[in-house]
Amino acid sequence: MEDLFIKLLNMSITAGWLILAVLCVRFFFRRMPKWVCCLLWGMVALRLVMPFSIESAFSLLPGVAPVRETTVEQDHFLMHVPSIDSKLPFVEQTINPMLRETFSYEETDSAAPWQVITGIAAYVWAAGIVLLLLFAVGSMVRLHLLVQEAVQDQDNVYLCDAVKSPFLLGVVRPKIYLPSALTEKEMEYILAHERAHLRRRDYLWKLLGYILLCIYWFNPLCVLAYLLLCKDIELACDEKVIREMSLSDKKEYSRVLLSCAAQRRYVFVCPVAFGEVGVKDRVKAVLNYRKTAGWVMGIALVVCAVVMVCFLTNPSKEYRIKITIPAGNSYGFCYSDEEISPKRSTLTIAKGGSLGDAEVILLPVEFGEETASDDPIPVTAVAPAKIKAEKGVWYKIGVNLQNPATRDMDVYVTVSGVEVRITSGNRDENSIVLEKEALQSIEVSQETADHQNAEPNKEQMNEEQGNPEAAAYLKVYMITENDSVTIPLSLSQEQVSAILSEERKQLGNGYGFIASLWIDGEEEYFTENSVPQTVVDLAVEKCGYLFASPASLQSPIKEARLDCNWLKEPICLGKEKLPQLEKILKGAEQIGVGDCGYGAVLTLTLENGERMTLYKGTDDCGSIVFGSWGGYSISSQADQAFWEMFGLGKTAKDRREN
User: What is the pTM of this model?
Assistant: First the structure.
């Protein structure tokens, strides 16, 4: 039920923008026919009942899901931590960080605060629906009891002594109920009004409005919309009745309207009553009524069309495309696994996540009449890239960072107005040729291309491994307390054959791993998601590669020692704080290794005799490396608690000053 409530909350917020637009139209275009206002409220109802809508480049809505149950922190999704999607920098920089701080929680907690709040809100919402439905049913039952002695006068018109004010009652075959004491002239005016309601099916529209009110009662704008709908229905009906009346008839009609309103005793929820709402404004509108000019009608219809296009359609959906930058990459563009196909001739690509200032480009993977621009286009935090592309053709998005990547990292771009698919694995020969030609055409410079295709420096390899004649190398990447290191290993032909022929597998238990294979100047990367067994064996046997994760803490911590590059002596943690440390480490979440300055070494001794070495990020990002490359992160609160339990400052600046 919580998910349904959040869904309806988002739908009501989205419809709220349309309600505000309708309010503006009612205020600035008061001379337009009132049936146009009813048409606008019909658009609001359509927005509230439609779980989806067509996309439009003219949509003025900031988003279709303003309230999200997840947020992103350092490119990692935090479940049950809300965020606001408004496309406004103020919200992104101010409100969302406050929400993350307020609703953060530990993995060991029984429930997240956001889950508790939404659970309570969902039950309150359901209770409100029940109360409003009971009130409506009670009102209808009371009215039926009131008119059970009514006598039929003509067709569907009934007279009743207990009725003080005329109204329309029923849904399938609605009946008109009138007071018995009405004069013939008064009855003529009232019947004209009620029959206008019947022809316009106002009793159905009002019933639909009340049902939507029961569902969206928690949104004040929806409540206001229902009240104004009831008023506009009556005004539109009055306009229909008095269109051909003389001034004297209008005055008499107004007198009857006031008389019936003065005698009305009940608040009718579903029926359409003659003197039900806004009687004062209705009398003024009747006496001041003038036929609508043709140009006013034309403007009203144009305004309706603009409101419909701008607020009844959804903005183009944005996709968050991930691009992996391999460790050691410094040779140019890296491309997304996903392929995109533009719906328009121009694409807008914006930075996202940890992507800094960079260049982006489109790589066509299919033939088309035209191709995308071969020139890279810069993208910054304030200046998204606009790239010309051919509709219907599939492309990959390429990113070239300004600064070479020193560690394996994932960056993100956001793009809208496209279709997205996973990389096709069976493209035809022409597509492959086109891709190769495009790759050659987008090299930033010959120097970059030469660097990309250059073989490793053999003198340097001689110093590192004593084998300058080896044609194949395996580079293993590992984290130390100072920085990442690359350990090169020369490979025999048998080892190369084994690596190339073995089926790649995914390492389990949240382990991190990265290595690269050099063969004749070409480099291929292996990560924990896809790695041959021979590569893993060589890393462990030759480099001492360690695989570890929070799940490796299968025994309680017996001793913990922290050594930082700015401390003279290591700090040993007191036994009373070991359970707290264990809780923090077990709550770490895998995010990948980042550039966090791992200047602290945490050595753990477990009660079962095992020893573990962890590298802690010394800035304020809460990063921890388990083993040789297992990138994890803890929350900002846990990060502060970690440093405080060792007697160090809360922030990186405090720690270095102390």
Answer: 0.57
